TrEMBL record:
InterPro entries according to UniProt: DctQ, TRAP_DctQ
Keyword NADP attributed: no
Protein name in UniProt: TRAP transporter small permease protein
Transmembrane segments: 21-43, 55-71, 91-114, 134-151
Source species: Melaminivora suipulveris
Record PANTHER family: 2,3-DIKETO-L-GULONATE TRAP TRANSPORTER SMALL PERMEASE PROTEIN YIAM, SLL1102 PROTEIN
Lineage: Bacteria, Pseudomonadati, Pseudomonadota, Betaproteobacteria, Burkholderiales
Length: 209
């Protein structure tokens, strides 16, 4: 179990890193949008490339940051009934959701999306709009985003199984008011310290249990 928890922490660090820098994609899209508006007003000039690169960046930001959003538990949830259930029942619902819904959907998207990306790359598909951009760079965000989302789903699955086995913290607990990076670093530090103390005390491993 400890090896799986280490794998989970590595995924969390990866998606925290990605999420930290995805904000720059939004910033770039904002700058390009403002520059496009200024150029259009002052010089009476515009280009479809300016418009398309904005939605390219937007597509990249929300697709690639999907795993980070799951890490922060910010995806939309319907808690009308779920919040009335016991903690263990909620955890079991999440386990079934990650294993039987999120993972198969991600695999299906990758199975369908990767061949489409390859086709568009090989054909050099270009936007049909005058002055438009090539299309394959925005298609890269689709498999990349769903790989990160699927990995984060596995990380959340591992955390919940560890919680049920009594070797992991509550994965449903409230998030700290610290910044995202500080909260993640603190959580990883505490978990690593707990594992170190358990090893030093000779606590049986999950496999031994």
């Amino acid at each position: 179990m400890q090896a799986l928890l280490a794998f989970s922490r590595a995924i969390d660090r990866l998606n925290a890193f990605v999420g930290r820098y995805c904000i720059w994609l939004i910033f770039a899209a904002t700058i390009i949008s403002a520059a496009n508006a200024v150029v259009r007003k002052i010089f009476n000039y515009s280009s479809n490339a300016f418009l398309e690169v904005q939605w390219y960046l937007f597509a990249w930001s929300f697709l690639v940051a999907a795993g980070y959003t799951l890490l922060q538990r910010e995806h939309v949830r319907i808690d009308v009934l779920n919040s009335r259930l016991s903690k263990r029942t909620q955890v079991w619902i999440d386990i079934f959701g990650f294993a039987l819904f999120l993972t198969p959907v991600c695999i299906l998207v990758l199975w369908l999306g990767i061949p489409m990306l390859i086709t568009r790359f090989e054909s050099g598909e270009v936007s049909g709009n005058p002055g438009g951009l090539i299309r394959w760079p925005v298609w890269v965000a689709l498999p990349l985003g769903f790989v990160l989302l699927m990995l984060q789903g596995w990380s959340e699955l591992i955390k919940r199984v560890a919680f049920l086995k009594g070797v992991g913290p509550d994965p449903m607990g409230r998030l700290s008011s610290k910044t995202d990076e500080e909260a993640l670093i603190e959580a990883l530090r505490v978990q690593a310290e707990q594992e170190r103390l358990a090893t030093a005390a000779g606590t049986p491993s999950a496999a031994a249990r």
